[in-house]
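Task: sequence design from structure.
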């Protein structure tokens, strides 16, 4: 972040009171216009990914070294002491959340002409270690305005610090110190307000390179949270050592047991050359899958060594830095490799790049493809020298300092081109992950689809083609020309799912085409399955050879059935229903046709279909589920000729039926010469049910009288006589019509009774005497 960036609610810090820590009136600002001799980027649209901004501030003395952590910046200054005065050391401590208030810390040292050679901030910026050329070392707590001399660590010129677990405002936690003589020490510092009490809880040497080479970097990585297992990397100018083991607190220190278990056969990797500017940087990044990975970079004589440490993934003793790579040094100008190496000053790691600091410029190089993405020269005044870099891992801020100036290295949208890099590497998953716009994601999907198509993975390619802007016709022709109907079906199905609700015409056309494909494939699959089943029946001894193919064919059939029914179900309201019926019928997909008719509640079509296929009981079952009585009136005349008892039984369950509208059906049954006695008995039973239920319709009464007469003989007129006598006082049937029917059937006794009801007693007597 820039020094001019202000947050609405910055995180509060434990700051000293004005009395305890006097503030300077100095103020930091960024230069409004920093002159750039050259700013070279990779040509992509947008601001430069890496850009230097000079801090517009006149430092009171020359800069020696800089460190930064948790948005706290410490700048060590070079002081000049008069011959008879005590040597003064000076440090500026700056809270970047409040850059207008700077702590100017000045303290004296007994070492004549001593100077600060390195400063080290703890990750949370509670603690600061100051190392001098003389070997004197000082400790400055965040609440203090004057550092304390670390008497136990005198004579050690600290070149690197690794902060272990457990840092808080009250303790540094265990930490490892690397020295210029190649030794590693362990200590823990606790702030003491009492001047006579020592901050060092303990101090001991735990490791040595056994060679006169400075330790340029130490890194401690806890391999899983809450675990005592650690990886420790120690680097000199030409070697890097890696150790994995367990560490636990003890009286002799936290890491003492870790190093005590080393067997002396130190695991190291050696690099050619002996780079004086060698240093180690680390940065922890979050991967697309959510895991955390620590990248470790080491500047060597042949290039920048970068490897990864995956936290939380190791339990065995051989865990080391993963997939290390050495990136050669590069610059956009024509300088030689040796000249380039000699001009190296330092480097830093960002999430996806490393930035080299040269004597006159910076060069940003991608860790993914080794390409230079930015280069900027540093405008140097006379007698101005580039000294070093510092990085704040938690805030992702980066700093460059000369002996006269301080620059912030602004990193902007550095992942802007990652999608292109991963696309070139054919890592389509990560390319899609880092694509930022719909156009970029479309390009990734198109390239991935082309790759899958070339690999003949047509179904997978089809699904991706559907998400691109490629011409619908062109994609379809690719699959049609190869007769890849399965892939074409995948493409059409995916394309359907991406259409909007209002795209009715496209949905209907694509859905119909897809239905045609699936229905055809379903028929082919069914035929194959039937053929295999028939072959197995004829040759049971070949079951081991035939059974797998048969099971596969049946599974394909089931899958295609599910796909077709899913299509019909999802798009039932947007498909052209007559076309659906025609297509399914032409392919003989009876089950799917019935399924679709039920989906859209086309009950009349369904009943008609069952009747046409002589599935009388299914037709009647559909009718029985309807609330509308029109279905009964419309279809009963056909059904009653085939399943009369079932039809009449259903009528008796629906009291809302109007019997008069059922008369055509009843007449069909009564006039049918093939009607069984049981069917006629069922019909008579229904009419008797109506009469007993209070039905007074003369048509029903007459029809029942007619059926009674049809079932009676001159020798047995009981049904007719019983019916006539039951209504003698006030008959509901048509008496003259009934008389005519009885005379036609020769039912004389019944006719006599009917004459009497009509009051024609003479005719009744004459008929009786005959």
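Answer:
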């Amino acid at each position: 972040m820039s020094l001019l960036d202000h947050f609405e609610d910055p995180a509060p810090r434990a700051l000293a009171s004005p009395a305890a820590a006097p503030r300077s009136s100095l103020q930091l600002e960024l230069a409004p216009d920093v002159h750039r001799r050259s700013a070279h980027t990779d040509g992509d649209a947008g601001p430069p990914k890496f850009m230097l901004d000079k801090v517009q501030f006149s430092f009171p003395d020359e800069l020696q070294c800089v460190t930064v952590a948790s948005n706290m910046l410490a700048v060590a200054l070079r002081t000049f002491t008069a011959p008879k005065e005590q040597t003064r050391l000076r440090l500026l401590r700056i809270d970047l959340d409040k850059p207008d208030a700077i702590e100017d810390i000045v303290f004296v040292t007994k070492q004549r002409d001593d100077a600060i050679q390195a400063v080290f901030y703890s990750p949370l910026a509670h603690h600061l270690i100051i190392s001098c050329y003389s070997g004197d070392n000082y400790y400055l707590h965040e609440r203090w305005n004057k550092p304390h001399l670390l008497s136990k660590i005198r004579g050690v010129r600290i070149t690197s610090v690794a902060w272990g677990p457990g840092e808080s405002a009250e303790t540094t936690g265990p930490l490892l110190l690397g020295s210029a003589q190649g030794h590693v020490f362990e200590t823990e510092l606790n702030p003491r307000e009492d001047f006579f009490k020592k901050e060092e809880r303990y101090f001991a040497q735990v490791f040595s390179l056994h060679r006169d080479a400075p330790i340029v970097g130490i890194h401690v990585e806890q391999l899983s949270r809450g675990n005592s297992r650690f990886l420790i990397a120690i680097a000199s100018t030409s070697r890097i050592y890696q150790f994995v083991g367990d560490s636990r607190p003890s009286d002799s220190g936290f890491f003492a047991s870790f190093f005590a278990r080393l067997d002396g056969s130190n695991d190291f990797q050696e690099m050619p050359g002996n780079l004086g500017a060698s240093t180690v940087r680390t940065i922890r990044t979050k991967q697309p899958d959510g895991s955390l990975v620590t990248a470790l970079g080491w500047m060597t004589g042949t290039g920048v060594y970068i490897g990864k440490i995956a936290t939380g993934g190791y339990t065995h003793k051989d865990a080391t830095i993963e997939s290390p790579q050495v990136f050669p040094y590069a610059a956009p100008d024509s300088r030689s490799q040796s000249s380039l190496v000699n001009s190296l000053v330092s480097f830093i790691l960002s999430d996806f790049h490393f930035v080299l600091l040269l004597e006159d410029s910076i060069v940003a190089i991608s860790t993914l493809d080794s390409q230079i993405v930015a280069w900027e020269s540093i405008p140097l005044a006379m007698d101005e020298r580039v000294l070093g870099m510092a990085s704040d891992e938690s805030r992702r801020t980066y700093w460059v300092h000369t002996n006269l100036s301080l620059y912030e290295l602004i990193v902007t949208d550095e992942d802007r081109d990652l999608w292109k890099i991963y696309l070139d590497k054919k890592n389509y998953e990560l390319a899609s992950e880092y694509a930022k716009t719909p156009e970029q994601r479309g390009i990734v999907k198109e390239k991935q689809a082309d790759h899958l198509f070339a690999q003949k993975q047509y179904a997978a390619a089809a699904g991706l083609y559907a998400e691109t802007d490629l011409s619908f016709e062109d994609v379809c022709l690719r699959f049609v020309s190869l007769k890849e109907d399965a892939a074409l079906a995948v493409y059409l199905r995916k394309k359907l799912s991406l259409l909007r609700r209002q795209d009715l015409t496209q949905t209907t056309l694509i859905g119909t085409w897809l239905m045609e494909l699936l229905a055809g494939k379903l028929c082919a699959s069914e035929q194959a399955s039937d053929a295999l089943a028939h072959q197995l029946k004829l040759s049971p001894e070949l079951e081991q050879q035939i059974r797998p193919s048969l099971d596969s064919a049946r599974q394909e059939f089931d899958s295609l059935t599910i796909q077709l029914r899913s299509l019909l179900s999802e798009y039932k309201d947007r498909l052209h229903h007559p076309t659906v019926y025609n297509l399914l019928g032409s392919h003989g997909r009876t089950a799917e046709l019935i399924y679709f008719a039920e989906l859209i509640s086309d009950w009349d079509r369904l009943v008609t279909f069952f009747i046409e296929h002589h599935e009388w009981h299914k037709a009647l079952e559909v009718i029985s589920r309807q609330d509308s009585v029109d279905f009964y009136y419309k279809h009963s005349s056909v059904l009653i000729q085939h399943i009369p008892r079932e039809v009449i039984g259903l009528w008796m369950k629906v009291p809302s039926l109007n019997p008069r509208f059922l008369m055509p059906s009843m007449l069909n049954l009564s006039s049918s010469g093939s009607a069984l006695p049981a069917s006629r008995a069922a019909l008579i039973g229904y009419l008797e049910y109506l009469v007993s239920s209070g039905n007074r319709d003369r048509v029903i009464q007459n029809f029942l009288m007619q059926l009674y007469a049809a079932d009676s003989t001159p020798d047995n007129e009981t049904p007719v006589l019983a019916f006539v006598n039951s209504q003698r006082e006030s008959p509901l049937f048509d008496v003259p019509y009934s008389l005519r029917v009885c005379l036609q059937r020769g039912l004389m006794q019944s006719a006599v009774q009917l004459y009497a009801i009509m009051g024609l007693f003479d005719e009744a007597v004459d008929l009786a005497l005959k």
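The radius of gyration is 48 Å.
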